[in-house]
């Protein structure tokens, strides 16, 4: 067995062992509480534990009918949740989102470190039997700099076994000499107007970087996730090259030793190591902050009930690919099946008269007034796909060579309906959906939304994926000690506010 194979196996076993510290059945499940209507309410999820430290924490409340099956209806106002400090004032903002089908998402944001808190839950005005639920502290504010050992942190977040995509991506690289890799990258990708990347180093939990190219503003997203992780977990000393553009860089047909670029998007013809997109990353870090669209909020704004939705396909976006223009043309030929318009012209300004007028922007949540959501590539993969899957419509996805980090787990006709790259069978697929309405509705309920709930919102947390990627870099067999290059700059924390960390014995 090669060095790389041994390293990858050891890496996977380490993460699996850490996950076993907190079996899901013990950490999440609680006995259901009976309600005045004869229903019961089940409360579960990682946010019921004080050591589940994310910018916004969350748990789930499921209404269960008398026969033991999950309820399929719920009114938004049926559930009330209050989170308070037990012995001192704690500044905590709580939000309850209803998916409309008996499942509630409760998320909360801590504005200052809290020694201990309690969760009070009432359904239809009656407190649940287990209410209040104790949140043992300390509950640290997100900007508190108090990293804990890597394996302990994996257990706290219930990070599952290493994603197969990580192992597959890393398998292409071994015995990496970062000095040589950087030289190769600067020589082969010396296109500053079209290619920009950063050389990052994490040393003693401090972040350093040197960027190359003209357009390096997107380094803020990588800075943000690395700094967030460094506040929470003791990271390994690693170096990495992060591609700041949309297109993956290292082609599979390159005959020499490949450069291990970390990119937000992969493709069938490239070998970049794929990270969660900057959009999905920011929505995770800024949940209940400056970002309103995230994997939980979209499930709480699913639009009208299925029977009240428009039985047509819907799409809005910019002109970043010819097929998007073709989609608009198709919409004009079949207006009863498809509502598609361009909201911005940049790449095809000479065709504004043909494919315009430019439509006004609408809220993403309003997309779900329609039953069928169309996903068409932009410059690369359309980064809206996870949010479409989380919504309340059927997702129809264009065949594509591009993929995000979670695509390999998607199953066609279970999580989405595929259509050809040239859109030649899209009308046929929309017509099929209209003729099989009940089947399509069930598909949405148990297919795409369940996939998002289990894989994206609960199990494959963005922070877990990034941390496992960084740890996985060690399996590349770095041939040099990680060092801070003279040209690198230190990436300071985003806030200068100093927050003290509490220990379990304090407070």
Quick structural summary:
The chain is α/β, with parallel strands linked by helices.
Please render the helix and strand layout as text.
Elements: H1 3-19, H2 24-28, E1 33-34, E2 40-44, E3 57-64, E4 79-85, E5 92-98, E6 103-110, E7 114-123, E8 126-127, E9 133-139, H3 150-156, H4 164-170, H5 178-188, E10 197-203, E11 206-212, H6 219-232, E12 238-243, E13 261-263, E14 266-267, E15 273-274, H7 278-285, E16 310-318, H8 322-333, E17 338-344, H9 352-355, E18 370-375, H10 385-390, E19 394-398, E20 402-403, E21 417-419, H11 426-435, H12 437-459, H13 462-473, E22 489-490
Parallel strand pairs: 12-13, 13-15, 16-17, 16-18, 18-19, 19-21
Antiparallel strand pairs: 1-2, 2-3, 3-6, 4-7, 5-6, 7-8, 7-9, 10-11, 10-12, 11-22, 14-20
Please tell me about this protein's structure.
This protein is of the alpha/beta class and 507 residues long. It folds into three domains: 25-143, Immunoglobulin-like (Sandwich); 164-275 and 462-490, no CATH class; 306-459, 3-Layer(aba) Sandwich (Rossmann fold). 27% of the residues lie in helices and 23% in strands. The protein contains 13 helices and 22 strands. The protein has helices spanning 3-19, 24-28, 150-156, 164-170, 178-188, 219-232, 278-285, 322-333, 352-355, 385-390, 426-435, 437-459, 462-473; strands spanning 33-34, 40-44, 57-64, 79-85, 92-98, 103-110, 114-123, 126-127, 133-139, 197-203, 206-212, 238-243, 261-263, 266-267, 273-274, 310-318, 338-344, 370-375, 394-398, 402-403, 417-419, 489-490. The strands form five sheets. The chain has a six-stranded mixed β-sheet with strand order 15-13-12-10-11-22, sandwiched between helices. Strands 1-2-3-6-5 form a five-stranded antiparallel β-sheet, with no helix packed on it. The radius of gyration is 24 Å and the shape is globular. Mean pLDDT is 88; it is low at 1-28.
């Amino acid at each position: 067995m090669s060095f790389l194979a041994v390293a990858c196996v050891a890496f996977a076993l380490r993460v699996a062992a850490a996950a076993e510290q907190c079996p899901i059945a013990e950490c999440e499940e609680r006995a259901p509480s009976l309600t005045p209507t004869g229903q019961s309410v089940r409360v579960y999820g990682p946010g019921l534990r004080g050591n589940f430290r994310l910018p916004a924490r969350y748990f789930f409340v499921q209404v269960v009918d008398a026969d033991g099956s999950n309820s399929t209806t719920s009114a938004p106002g049926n559930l009330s949740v209050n989170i308070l400090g037990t012995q001192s004032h704690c500044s905590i903002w709580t939000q309850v989102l209803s998916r409309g089908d008996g499942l509630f998402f409760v998320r909360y944001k801590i504005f200052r470190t809290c020694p201990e808190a309690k969760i009070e839950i009432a359904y239809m005005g009656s407190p649940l039997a287990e209410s209040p639920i104790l949140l043992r502290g300390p509950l640290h504010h997100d900007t508190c700099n108090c990293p804990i050992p890597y394996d302990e942190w994996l257990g706290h977040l219930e990070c599952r076994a290493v994603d197969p995509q990580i192992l597959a991506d890393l398998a292409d690289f071994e015995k990496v000499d970062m000095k040589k890799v950087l030289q190769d990258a600067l020589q082969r990708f010396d296109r500053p107007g079209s290619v920009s990347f950063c050389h990052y180093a994490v040393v003693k939990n401090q972040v350093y970087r040197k960027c190359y190219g003209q357009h390096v503003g997107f380094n803020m997203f990588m800075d943000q996730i690395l700094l967030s992780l460094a506040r929470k977990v003791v990271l390994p000393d690693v170096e990495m090259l992060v591609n700041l553009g949309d297109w993956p860089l290292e082609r599979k047909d390159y005959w020499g030793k490949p450069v291990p670029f970390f990119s937000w998007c992969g493709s069938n013809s490239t070998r970049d190591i794929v990270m969660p997109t900057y959009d999905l990353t920011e929505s995770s870090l800024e949940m209940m902050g400056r970002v309103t669209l995230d994997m939980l909020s979209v499930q709480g704004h699913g639009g009208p009930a299925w029977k009240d939705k428009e039985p047509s396909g819907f799409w809005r976006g910019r002109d970043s690919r010819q097929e998007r223009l073709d989609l608009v043309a198709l919409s004009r030929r079949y207006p009863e099946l498809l509502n598609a318009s361009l909201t911005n012209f940049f790449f095809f300004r000479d065709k504004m008269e043909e494919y315009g007028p430019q439509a006004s922007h609408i809220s993403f949540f309003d997309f779900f007034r329609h039953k069928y959501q169309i996903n068409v590539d932009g410059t690369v993969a359309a980064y809206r796909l996870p949010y479409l899957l989380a919504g309340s419509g059927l997702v129809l996805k264009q065949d594509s060579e591009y993929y995000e980090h979670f695509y390999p787990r998607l199953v066609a006709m279970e999580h989405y309906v595929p259509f050809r790259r040239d859109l030649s069978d899209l009308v046929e697929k929309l017509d099929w959906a209209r003729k099989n309405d009940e089947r399509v509705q069930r598909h949405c309920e148990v297919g795409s939304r369940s996939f998002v709930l289990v894989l994206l919102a609960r199990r494959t947390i963005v922070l877990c994926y990034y941390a496992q990627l960084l740890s996985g870099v060690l399996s590349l067999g770095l041939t040099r000690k990680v060092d801070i290059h003279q040209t690198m700059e230190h990436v300071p924390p985003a806030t200068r506010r100093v927050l003290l960390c509490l220990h379990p014995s304090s407070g």
